[in-house]
Each structure stands twice: as C-alpha cells, then as structure tokens.
C-alpha cells in the first residue's frame, strides 16, 4: 500500500513537472552540469578499451535514477545532446536532467571519444559486453563517478536500441528498458543493398548525407537547419562488424535476445519511420515474451530520429511519465 501511494504521488509530481517544463523547454539550460567520464572495458581479444560518456545532471547526480543512453549507427553521444536550433531545444539529456534524472550518454565503441577497436571485432555481442561492463560498474562505487546507482534505465535509439536490448536480455543490468526507432516485426529495408555493399568495403564507415536526410527525417516536421547540422556535426562512423551483425540479425531473437528481457519495456515507434514504422505496433509486443510488462507507443508524424524533430516532446514526455510510473523514481 505504501509503495502504491508513493507511486501515485510520484506520478502526480511528474505530471506537475511536465506542466512546468513543457512551455519553457529552453529555460535554465545553464544549470545543467556535464561531467566527462571514461570506463575501461575488456573485449574478447583480451585487450582493454575505453567507453567514453558524458553525464548530465542538475545540482548532484547522487540518489537519482540514472538513464544510460545509447546512440544509433552513424552517431555518437551528441545524438542525445544536440544544440538548440532556431530557438528550439533538441537535447534529450539536458531535458531529462532538468526533470531530476542523471543521464549518462555514452559513445559506443568505435564512435565519438571511445576507443576504436578493429572494425571487424566490434560485433553486437562485443558492443553489448562493453555496455554491460559499464553498467555493472555503476551498480557499485568503484567506477569513474564514485557512486552506486540504485535505479538504472537503459534508453536506446535505433542500433543503440538493439545494443540495449541485447544487453538487457543477456545480463539484465537495468531496472527498465526504453527502445526508440527499432522494432522486431520484419519490414522491408528502405536502404538499397548496393549502397551498403559499397560502404562495407571499409572497416569503419558512415552513411552518406543524402541517405541520412532521406531515411532519418519526416521533412514536414524537421527543420532543414537541423538536418544540415546533423550531417555537419552529429555524424560519426560505426564499426563494420556491428553494422553487419545488426543488419543480419535484427529480427533474430537468438541474437537480439529480445525474448530474454525480463524487465519492464517501453517501445516507441515513429508513425512515419521507414526503418521501424508505427504500423507494426500491434505485433511488436509479441516479441517480448519474457518482459514483465510491455508498453508500445506510436508517435504521430515522427520519422526515425526522434530527438531531432520539432515535436520531440511527444517522445520525451511519455518516456519521463513511463519511467516515473514504472520505477517511481523518475
């Protein structure tokens, strides 16, 4: 009964916070602190590499629910911390930090400031092992932050959602899982296989600007200046093995381990996302056979890159509300 009452009032407080935050999304960003951290991880080749992260928080990161955010392919942690453009905010990390979370946005191996192992080493399993080591350290005080977190939520986007799902299925490190821009119902790929065949000649590669603009955005709800910023400043490379393993196994539960996730799960699909369309929502929860609960949300008018559309709050606000209701710690 006490937990139920606490949950009820937590949700009420969360809703009140939304009423205060939503009309003024660009306010108070100067109060957010950013701490750069590096986590050592060991891969199957026996070598130690580093996973870089940026921690966003307000006042203190202690005794807060921690969101660990994993970017998708051809991005790094800045997908979660894009700058404001034409007065509109695009930083998920800073938005959530203002709502009293700590947000650790990591660079997946091979991207951003993380180590760059051989491009054919970093498979989905190796990427997942690295994230697992980061999360395991965050449960104790022996980590670069010197603090043990009691509540951890994994939040992924696209390929990062696939990594997060694999990690949660293999290790169960987080208390809850949020996936965005990724589904488990097979759909035709919008990409021409010939385009990928050419790109995969290199151990590290990125997607050409024209493909990113075409497949990552609904142009009716995306600022052209944001798309230009994306291709100029947010773009990054990804390891060939990670791309190949993801492309070959996206719908294979033996690799994704989606059927082994036991925590609560929130899945967000973009209505107009050509990669993981909202039209598959009615079948999506069938993949999560072991999850304690599954919530599937379809975001109206949304393309693939949720954070970088002008109506990004239709993603961010429900994530906050779901975490608050699910963990009663948001």
Polypeptide structure, described:
With 330 residues, the protein is α/β, with parallel strands linked by helices. The chain is 35% helix and 21% strand. It contains eleven helices and twelve strands. The strands form three sheets. An eight-stranded mixed beta sheet has the order 1-2-6-3-7-8-11-12, with helices on both faces. A two-stranded antiparallel sheet has the order 4-5. Strands 9-10 form a two-stranded antiparallel ribbon. It starts with a helix and ends with a helix.
Poorly predicted ranges (pLDDT <50, ≥5 residues)? 1-29
CATH fold name = Rossmann fold
What is the number of strand segments? 12
Strand coverage percent: 15-25%
Give the number of helices: 11
* CATH class identity: Alpha Beta
The mean pLDDT is 91
Envelope shape: globular
- Order of strands, widest sheet: 1-2-6-3-7-8-11-12
In short:
With 330 residues, the protein is α/β, with parallel strands linked by helices. It is built from 11 helices and 12 strands. Helix 1 packs antiparallel against helix 11 (313-327).
Layout of helices and strands:
Elements (H helix, E strand, L loop, with lengths): L1 H20 L10 E11 L5 E11 L7 E5 L11 E4 L2 E3 L1 H7 L3 E5 L17 H15 L13 E6 L1 H13 L4 E5 L12 H7 L4 E2 L3 H8 L7 H11 L3 E2 H10 L3 H4 L7 E7 L10 H4 L8 E7 L13 H15 L3
Parallel strand pairs: 3-6, 3-7, 7-8, 8-11, 11-12
Antiparallel strand pairs: 1-2, 2-6, 4-5, 9-10
Helix pairs in contact: 1-11, 3-4
